[in-house]
Fold this sequence. Notes:
- By secondary structure, the protein is mostly helical.
- It has 3 helices and no strands.
- The protein has 2 domains: 1-57; 58-128.
- The chain is elongated, with a radius of gyration of 25 Å.
Amino acid sequence: MLGSFANIAALALKSEYRAIRRRVIRQVVLLSLGSVLGLLALVFLSASVALALVPRIGDWQAFLAVGAGQFVLALAAVLLMRAGRRNRKPAGGADGTGKSTGKSTDDAGALVLSALIAGIALGQGKSG
């Protein structure tokens, strides 16, 4: 009786393990496919923006502007991710005094917003 219960439990665990394994593999494949398609979309979007800017500001200037814009967006994303990690620390702070030692996500968001406003102001100031 106890032996058959152990066999049933072992079969159930194996079945659950297989189901979880299939689910994880499926999620990894879908995430990889989504990442590749997203990257491809970003490449086409960047190329179309650069090609649209070429008649206005020139060849290399257009691609430089698009590259600089992508760099700023990547930097903003890294700053937001780092600020989010700092917010996950225990409430007692890193030094145990109860005070927070890191900047919040709001500070990083304010930095990104001020950079965006500065970029818009610079873009409007340029005569074409």
